[in-house]
Amino acid sequence: MKCLKNQPIGIFDSGIGGLTVARSIRKALPGENMIYFGDTARVPYGNKSRDTIIRFACEIVKFLVKKKVKMIVIACNTASSFSLNAIKKIYSGPVIGVISPGVKEAIDVSENGRIGVIGTNSTINSRSYNKEIAKYGPDIKFFSESCPLFVPLVENKFSNDDIAYDVAERYLKELKKKHIDTLILGCTHYPILKKVISSVMNGIKLVDSSSAVAKKVKDVLVKEDLLLSDKRSQGWTRCYVSDDVKGFRVDARIFFKKDISIKKAVL
Ligand code: DGL
Questions:
Q1: What is the largest CA-CA distance in the chain?
Q2: What's the pLDDT tens digit per position in 202-216?
Q3: Which residue in 35, 53, 120, 129 is deepest, having the highest Cβ count within 10 Å?
């Protein structure tokens, strides 16, 4: 079935992390309508198995399809690592993950070809970043580290707390010895810890893939003739969460600088 330009873009993550991507899409495409799903009842995804992550992602996509989205943005590295192909099997419209735009940006900004990535246990163990980086040839040296406590710190609002610095020092200790000049924040929750991570990784360029993803969303919408080009009107954003809306409302207000519609949804 042909989609219409005024149908919303569907975006999802395990929790609030994907709001970093939604915010960039909103900035790049102010007129577009967006539906965001945060699977707050089941966050974190990063320590779950491949099969579970695929099942969760497909359930969310089915929910977004019922909301008549014109494209799907997997605003989660963990879900992008495992479920891209499974989603393409159940959804015929455009699907974008966050891994390849982030890697492309890192390759563009790195000067010494030594790139690090940090992510959840599942993302790092999936080797999705290794596979994507390998496409750019053997000269790129790549180092990775999983940081499983980062997501709970963010979800529990400890992003600026001393405890976040202590955890970051510990997780990033080995990466600091690798002479990388670029570090990919391979989890959409991590840009919320940018201040902490950049103070520990002093002088290293941090790649937050959200603006690269937003650019890719625009390119795909143009290519598919689905870009809503009415520049006069501001698009709407609606969020759905699988658990209580209260905590999510506070975060959404910080991201969008206004109150937006948030409802609890049962998948
Ligand atoms: N924000 C997600 C990611 O990019 C998920 C993190 C989690 O739920 O563990 O990987």
A1: 52
A2: 999 999 999 999 999
A3: 120
Q: Whose CA is nearest to atom 2 of ligand 1?
A: 76
Cβ(13) to ligand 1 under 6 A?
yes
Q: Which residues are catalytic?
A: 76, 187
pLDDT at residue 1 above 70? no
Task: Judge if the beta carbon of residue 17 lies within 6 A of ligand 1.
Answer: yes
CA distances from 144 to 69, 115, 180 (A): 34, 9, 11
Asked whether the beta carbons of 190 and 197 are under 8 A apart, the reply is yes
Which has the closest alpha carbon to 96: 259, 213, 265, 236? 213
Listed in sequence order, the DSSP H helices in 143-188 are 150-155, 162-172
* pLDDT value, residue 23: 96
Bridge partners, residue 183, by sequence:
116, 206
Judged by DSSP in three states, 81 sits in helix
* Sign of torsion over alpha carbons 107, 154, 145, 187: negative
Rounded CA gap, 3 and 64, in Å? 14
CA–centroid distance, 122 to ligand 1, in Å, is: 9
Ligand 1 centre to CA of 49 (Å) is 13
Alpha carbon 47 to its chain centroid, in Å, reads: 16
Quick one: pLDDT at residue 233?
Answer: 79
**Alpha helices of 135-202 — where are they, by DSSP H?**
150-155, 162-172, 194-200
Under a CB-based contact definition with an 8 Å cutoff, are residues 98 and 209 in contact? yes
The number of the ligand 1 atom at minimal distance from the alpha carbon of 81 is 10
Tokens 């977004």 correspond to 64
Q: How confident is the model at residue 3 (pLDDT cuts 50, 70, 90)?
A: confident
C-alpha span between 137 and 134 (Å, rounded): 5
